[in-house]
Amino acid sequence: MNIALDYQARVPIYEQIVGEIERLVALNILSPGEQIPAIRELALTLGVNPNTIKKAYDTLESRGVIISKSTKGTFITDDVSVVKKTLVDSIVSDINEKIERLENIGLDKKEISKRLKL
Amino acid sequence: MNIALDYQARVPIYEQIVGEIERLVALNILSPGEQIPAIRELALTLGVNPNTIKKAYDTLESRGVIISKSTKGTFITDDVSVVKKTLVDSIVSDINEKIERLENIGLDKKEISKRLKL
DNA sequence: TTAATTGTACTAGAACAAATAGTACAAGGA
DNA sequence: TCCTTGTACTATTTGTTCTAGTACAATTAA
How many of the other CB atoms lie within 10 Å of CB of B27? Predict the structure, then answer.
């Protein structure tokens, strides 16, 4: 798994891992049911402590992105559509918040549209 | 000055203050040349330590938003247009980054447009 | 002149979250 | 049996933020 970490960022390592795996799922690079690396293995790969990966996996499991099976391994959930939808929704509402901020500052919708890559 | 602080947020207090003052400048609520509260005064108002305000003011000064004059007080910079422009630019590029992410996930520009409040 | 207010500049410590280190257990598979 | 898996726990380290406290110089107002 190709995961880039930024140790300078304010975002905790474990959350960066969560975000990257969610991104890989949304991009279909990780497929439903697919097994992902064991905690210890990914810890070695990324050069972080296993507990950090454990925390990331716990978060992903609570969000329904992955399923951990004792002694078997960890797998991408079977129904990925919900994960994708949630992710898209959150990005869209993020953008809309920022559009609102631009309007408050005094830009009108036309000016804003002009500057967006659409 | 009406500044709302969120003590639960991951964003440090001093950065929240920086952001709020930049926002008030962009909204023309704080005008060029206008004096803003003394460090100790704002610290009392917001219920934080003066050093925290000092750090926020230092950051704002390094960004050219305010000017601190020893024994005089602290003032909004005379040329506010640069501040506004920088702020707008950063929001716009933020939005464009997210649009790109949505495209990577598989939405086309039309679908994205439909969901934006424009 | 005197007192109050201003920004500035330090050091020290408290508080908190993140990450590390280490150990141990139970269960499945080769 | 031995290895790998996820799980669970405690203790420690680290870095950042924030607080606490003190002091100084310069301006302003009484």
Answer: 13
